[in-house]
Amino acid sequence: MPYLGLGVYQVNEGEEVENAVKTALSYGYRSIDTAAFYGNEQGVGRAVSESGIPREKIFVTTKVWNDAQGYESTLAAFEQSRKNLGFDYIDLYLIHWPVKGKYKETWKALEKLYKDGMVRAIGVSNFQIHHLEDLMADCSIKPMVNQVELHPMLTQKELLHYCKKQNIQVEAWRPLMRGENFDHPTLAGLAEKYNKTVAQIILRWNIQLQIVTIPKSVTDHRMKENANIFDFELTEQDIAEIDAMNKNKRLGADPDNFNF
């Protein structure tokens, strides 16, 4: 699984998402993250198929939405996503949110898909430690990935430590905080120190903490900038300074209190 990918949440189906994916692939991205809920799986699939890059070289993630959770309904939702994408298999399939009373049956469906070879990896999204503990109490396959909101204002250290101990790969959504706090002195100072953008500093911080990161962009130069993070390295002190920015501040929904 590549450490850098493109997120396509709120990217319109059709020309917009197709252009974004093709542009990202041209800049060396090899991971694309979509979801049934995003409504753009078909465009992602077309862009990947038309890119000229072998399918097996591109890591594609999609997710089962909340209203499709449950055993049989998840299997049906997966098949619809697979058809939308136009692929024989999906690289990573995630439970989008921990819907109470549903996610265990949903996970059983993901285990079947994995055992049947329809998906190369299975995981969860927005799961807290207690959700993971509950799921793993009686599952046959542990989640391989947990995709969560994670950025300098929400560093998720306890969850990171737990997932590392359990050999679950953490993946960050909304890593760039939608541009909030980009003027923070710590980030601005590090950007100046390394002659990089604030976004590049944050994404490099993710990479060095071994967190998979999927910044969303539809802008050519930003996608190019976001990929240009492998020619410098933050010091341990730099990483500690970014860690110290944590305010446990969520920009998205709380996994323990959502109603969708």
Describe this structure in words.
Helices cover 40% and strands 14% of the residues. The chain has 260 residues and is α/β, with parallel strands linked by helices. The chain has one domain (6-243): Alpha-Beta Barrel (TIM Barrel). α5 (129-136) links the parallel β5 and β6 (145-149). α1 packs across α2 and α2 packs across α3. The relative contact order is 0.14. The record marks 63 as: Lowers pKa of active site Tyr. Keywords: NADP, Oxidoreductase. This is Aldo/keto reductase.
- Number of individual domains: 1
CATH topology: TIM Barrel
Largest sheet: 8 strands, parallel
Overall mean pLDDT: 98
Task: Describe the structure concisely for a colleague.
With 260 residues, the protein is an alpha/beta fold. It is 40% helix and 14% strand.
Descriptors:
single chain, 260 residues, alpha/beta, TIM Barrel, eight-stranded parallel beta sheet, 10 helices, 8 strands
Tell me the layout of helices and strands.
Layout: E1 6-7, H1 15-26, E2 31-33, H2 41-50, E3 59-64, H3 71-85, E4 90-95, H4 103-115, E5 119-125, H5 129-136, E6 145-149, H6 157-165, E7 169-173, H7 185-194, H8 198-208, E8 212-213, H9 220-227, H10 236-243
Parallel strand pairs: 1-2, 2-3, 3-4, 4-5, 5-6, 6-7, 7-8
Helix pairs in contact: 1-2, 2-3, 3-4, 7-8
